Every structure is written in C-alpha cells, then in structure tokens.
Amino acid sequence: MNKTHTSRFWDILYRHRYEILLVSFFILLFGDLVIIANVDLFPYLVIQNVVASLMVFHNRLRKKVFFLVVIALLVLLEMANLFFDAPNTRVIFFLTYIIYFILLSVRVYRQVLFSAEVSIGMIAAVLCGFIILGLIGGFVFSIVEFAEPGSFNNITEGVGGVSDLIYFSFITILSIGYGDITPTTDIAQKAALLFGLVGYFYGVVVIGVIIGKYLAQRTDQVEP
Description:
Number of strands: 2
Oligomer: single chain
Order of helices and strands: HHHHHHEHEH
Distance between the termini: 44 Å
Helix content: over 70%
Structural class: mainly alpha
Strand content: under 5%
Strand order of the largest sheet: 1-2
Shape: globular
Number of helices: 8
C-alpha cells in the first residue's frame, strides 16, 4: 500500500472517528457478554477503547502521545494487580481512566457543540458523550466504595463491584432507579445525586442543541 492509499485510508478512519469510538464503547460495555474467557476481560476492553480514541486525536501529536502513555500505564497497573497484592493500584487505575475520559470528553463535547450540521458523526459523538458520563460516574462510585467500603448496598465484592457500580451509574443518569443498588453513606448519596443532575442536564442541553442545528440546517436547505 503506497503513501497515497495509506493517507486516504487514515483520512477515511478519521472522518468516521466518532462512529469507531462509539463501537469501541459498546465493546467495552458489552464485550464480556459475547467473548467467552476464563480471565477478567475488563482491562483489555479498556485498552481497546483507549486505542480507538487515538483516532479522535489523529492530527494532534501531543494528545496521541498522552494516550499512548495512558495505555502503557493501564497495562502496567493491571500487571501489578495480577502479580502483586497491591490494592492501591486499582485506585490509580480508576483515577487514570477518569483523567483519560475527561480529556476525551472535551473533544467529544466540542464536536457536539460546534458541529455545523446534524450528521451520523455528530449523533455518534452525542452517544459517546453520554457513555463517557456514565463510565466516569461508575469509576467515581468505585473510588467512593474503595475509600469507604459499604457505601453501596448489594454490589459484588472485589473487582466485580466495578461492573455493578458502572451499571448503577447508567441507571442513575438515565433516571431509571431500579433500587437494586442503593447508596448508603452521605458521600455516596451526594455523588449519586450529582451524576443524576448532570445526566438530566446533559439530556436537556443536547436535545436543544440537536433541534437547533437541525432547524438551522433545514432553513439553509429551504432558502434559495
């Protein structure tokens, strides 16, 4: 494959970067349902998500270098967690991933706000932004539970509790509230309230932005 074809290939991937990122998020959330393995797949699903996010920063070398460092750090932390009894590495893992998501969310939300038209890429970015919010919530709740065990009722002990709290985060920001998992401490309740408010605000703002852009787009198409 010559340089022209290679460049064209990367240009196509970059043009569909948010669709690729959205697929990566679905793999992260649901990959363990279709991939049968005797090991914890979550760290590997996380790494593929970080790799997919590199495409969002295809033309930004510094950000790409940062995300490569994040990948290396996540791998090292997981290796330390597998071979050594180092529970604090799990908190560092959570914090690293939260920082990664915050930086990625800035790029995603800019795409939503400053996109010139309503397109498949913009809708994919909207969904990515919502998933990012839910995952950040899950990791924040996990840190709360790690710092103060028993902050949440009815969650699995150990690493499995992370999946439970990610589930709880999405249930919270979606305003479903099944009640199967409940916060018990003051800080856990405040964290749940915060992400519930942010999730509601995100939905209202994004719907307004999409409707506004769609109406402006239709107006431009109608005008001669």
